[in-house]
Amino acid sequence: MMRKLSLLFAGALMGASAMSLVYGVPGTAANAAGAETYKQLAVFGDIFERVRAQYVTPPDDKSLVENAINGMLTSLDPHSSFMNAEAAQDMRVQTKGEFGGLGIEVTMENDLVKVITPIDDTPAAKAGVLAGDYIAKIDGEEVRGLTLNDAVQKMRGPVSTPITLTILREGADKPIEIKVVRDIIKVKAVKFRTEDDIGYIKITSFTEKTYDDLEAAITSIKKDIPKDKLKGYVLDLRLNPGGLLDQAVSVSDAFLDRGEIVSTRGRDPKDVTRFDAKAGDSIDGKPLVVLINGGSASASEIVAGALQDLRRATVVGSQSFGKGSVQTIIPLGESGALRLTTALYYTPSGKSIQGKGIAPDIKVDQPLPPELQGRDLTRGESDLKGHIKGAEEGETGSGSVAYVPPEAKDDLQLTYALELLRGQKTDPAFPPNPDKAVLNQ
């Protein structure tokens, strides 16, 4: 039984979180701390020294400080945290969309790392790693006992450095040792294909390369399907945990001619930033259906919310995650970086989706297969301990089942979208009327 449903790229995206990232330093300075605050800081210093001097075993000073800082930040909300130098570098790797690694999608199964697929034209594929292989050892070290993140970390490394994988393969009578030399792996944030007369585009995350990959996908689809036969597009944002805010804005703008895409509002009422669409629709006004579920969070909710409010697309699926906060990454030199929630974002209608999520125009639930029934795969911001209470959260909260079938034939949400675009299903929500856009007045 798979321990994790989400896929990880070996040597790359580790623990992708549901957040939008904005780089830089907040523009407003905090008020000077009062005397009582400094008194409490003195208490902290006293406790720190007593722990160092009297704890039963000598503690690590660096770990004590990092854990104390994270304790302070996690008491604010689930998305604020301190990243040491290593974690900060991991975050930069995730958002950049390329890394030094092997080029395999993996998950954890039966205490071993299972290869879902080797990515084409990568070191792993060239070395002979196959889908379905189980990695039992990494450079001679047993995988059993490691977490998936630990194993991924060990497979990462500088370009041109070798790594030896001990593989268990069905049909092989003994373990196979494969030497792989790490190289630059470029992660495709956008996957696409043609469904006869429809273009299907899936955005897996919002990295620095997402918008460029999207435009390349649209160009390719236009070449494959003649304009007079192209019925429209499906934009799949399911299981997309988010990423960079500027990329979410650019992706939304690709389908829009005008209108406000999103606004962010900080603690100061004057601290409002608006992002507007520019003229030009990359898909030439063709019909668009957006798919969401409980795994659609943050940046993906910005896109879905903008296209829904501006009546550019019909949103199909189930309630999204409901993460409506923006995190600013504040560099701290060699010490790492601070990830701090500095604003909430609002859709064009002026609504915050924090703790509420995006409700689809057409609700289509995806049933779980027999082997997953009885498991709780519902995901939502409102279930996170210490989350910021949304202004419109309500009693029902946010989120829904975060599951997409591996086979398209079993995907009821995708099937519904395709039938909608082909006219095989009808609904008042499709096609949407841009003249009835819900705008913030």
Question: What do you see in this structure?
Answer:
This protein has 441 residues and is an alpha+beta fold. It has 2 domains: 8-17 and 95-186, Roll (Pdz3 Domain), CATH 2.30.42.10; 190-434, 2-enoyl-CoA Hydratase, Chain A, domain 1 (Alpha-Beta Complex). The chain is 24% helix and 26% strand. It is built from 9 helices and 24 strands. A hairpin with a 6-residue loop joins strand 16 and strand 17. Helix 6 (210-224) runs parallel beside helix 7 (245-254). The longest helix has 20 residues, at 35-54. It is globular, with a radius of gyration of 23 Å. Residues 1-29 have low confidence and may be disordered.
What structural keywords apply?
441 residues, alpha+beta, Pdz3 Domain, 2-enoyl-CoA Hydratase, Chain A, domain 1, seven-stranded antiparallel β-sheet, seven-stranded mixed β-sheet, 9 helices, 24% helix, disordered N terminus
The percentage helix is 10-25%
Q: Output the CATH class name of the largest domain.
A: Alpha Beta
Spell out the CATH superfamily of the largest domain: 2-enoyl-CoA Hydratase, Chain A, domain 1
SS-based structural class?
A: alpha+beta
What is the radius of gyration?
A: 23 Å
Estimate nothing, just give the exact number of structural domains.
2
**Count the helices. How many?**
9
- What number is the mean pLDDT? 88
Number of strands: 24
How far is the first residue's CA from the last residue's CA?
51 Å
Family: Belongs to the peptidase S41A family.
EC number: 3.4.21.102
Pfam family, one: Peptidase_S41
Keywords: Hydrolase, Protease, Serine protease, Signal
